[in-house]
Specification:
Family: Belongs to the sorting nexin family.
Largest sheet: 4 strands, mixed
Strand order of the largest sheet: 1-2-3-4
CATH superfamily of one domain: Tetratricopeptide repeat domain
Subcellular location: Early endosome membrane
Keywords: Endosome, Lipid-binding, Membrane, Protein transport, Transport
InterPro entries: PX_dom, PX_dom_sf, SNX20/SNX21, TPR-like_helical_dom_sf
Distance between the termini: 48 Å
Number of helices: 16
Protein name: PX domain-containing protein
Length: 375
């Protein structure tokens, strides 16, 4: 296929999906048409049109694969044996152990995709009101971790925000998507009845064609979930996007890898802002604590103080919250270091100590971050 045809096909597909994601005349819920609610576009791994699939394999999605791998090693069965939660602290789900060897054209295609999507958001933000997020699998890597072998999908989460904001990126495997689908089916039988999910395969899970089609099915699956308000705000969907990043960030922070942890805390914060509904009552505060600790350890007191101020705004007058005194103490110390006004935070912290609501000195943000159990 000629390069011009490839780019045209890709652009046509992107515009089609973006226009569906950007529907409505104003803020609030999208007014879904009866046709849209029936989800006519199936998420099953059925045959795509040749041009769409060819375009997808030629640059929009980059991946490593085992085209001729015909053994009985099955990523889905390996996932099933891994237990109910294969994403423990520091398990490497961010893809560090993946065997990455995507072709240069695929890398360029992924970068081009992100630029195209962001350009479209910039041009349309004054004329269209974004109603839901857009998802794009930008790469897929075959991970060999004996005895397991699976595909790790990198997913770009694109939504409303500052014009220069880059899409948040997360990495998930088939078992993560399947667990989300299974949990939502148990809780929301009615709404989930109309939403398809890519079925398991016994063989050829690592071919280019399977990876490409499954990637598109995952995009459609998440898009369908976002289209239903009842599902969009489900705690399990929030956990799918945020919890693995929070766990990995916490693990890296506890081991002193602050720069690596900072990127994950920032991704988790961006995802929570895009999702619109807090994924847990204390997760935004925990995320800000992680950001503040990493910025402070990386000698960026200004950013650390800004995170503390944002957390104090979220806390308001919750004098009994366990994170209030640590944030006040950090804010006082950082303000003193920067030569900024600390009197209000200092007085508030002193009042908590005199009332016996917090010890003197209070626990640090890092101490609470290490003790926090994320479940």
């Amino acid at each position: 296929m000629h390069r011009g045809t490839q780019e045209g096909a890709m652009a046509s597909r992107l515009l089609h999906r973006l226009r569906h994601a950007l529907a409505g005349d104003g803020p609030g819920e999208a007014a879904a048409s009866p046709e849209a609610e029936q989800f006519p576009e199936s998420s099953e791994l059925e045959d795509d049109d040749a041009e769409g699939l060819s375009s997808r394999l030629s640059g929009t999605l980059s991946f490593t694969s085992a085209e001729d791998d015909e053994d009985d090693e099955d990523e889905d069965e390996d996932d099933a044996e891994a237990g109910p939660d294969p994403l423990p602290l520091g398990d490497g789900t961010s893809g560090e152990d993946a065997e990455r060897s995507p072709p240069p054209d695929g890398q360029r295609g992924s970068q081009l995709l992100a630029r195209q999507l962001q350009d479209f958001w910039k041009k349309s933000r004054n004329t269209l009101t974004p109603q839901r997020l857009l998802f794009e699998v930008t790469s897929a890597n075959v991970v060999k971790d004996p005895p397991s072998k699976y595909v790790l999908y990198t997913l770009a989460v694109i939504g409303p925000g500052p014009p220069d904001c880059q899409p948040a990126q997360i990495s998930r495997r088939y078992s993560d998507f399947e667990r989300l689908h299974r949990n939502l089916q148990r809780q929301f039988r009615g709404p989930m009845a109309a939403i398809s999910f890519p079925r398991k395969r016994l063989r050829r899970n690592f071919t280019a064609e399977t990876i490409a089609r499954r990637s598109r099915a995952f995009e459609q699956f998440l898009g369908h979930l976002q289209a239903v308000p009842e599902l969009r705000h489900a705690p399990d969907l929030q956990d799918f996007f945020v919890l693995p990043e929070l766990r990995r960030a916490q693990s890296l922070t506890c081991t002193g890898l602050y720069r690596e942890a900072l990127a994950l805390w920032a991704t988790a914060w961006q995802l929570q802002a895009q999702l619109g509904t807090p994924s847990g009552p204390d997760r935004p505060l925990l995320t800000l604590a992680g950001l503040a600790v990493c910025h402070q350890e990386l000698e960026d007191p200004g950013e650390a103080r800004a995170c503390c101020e944002k957390a104090l705004q979220l806390l308001g007058d919750k004098s009994l919250h366990p994170l209030l005194a640590p944030f006040l103490e950090a804010h006082v110390r950082l303000s003193w270091r920067l030569g900024l006004d600390k009197r209000q935070s200092e007085a508030r912290l002193q009042a908590l100590q005199e009332a016996g609501l917090t010890p003197t000195p209070p626990p640090s943000l890092k101490e609470l971050l290490i003790k926090e159990v994320l479940d």
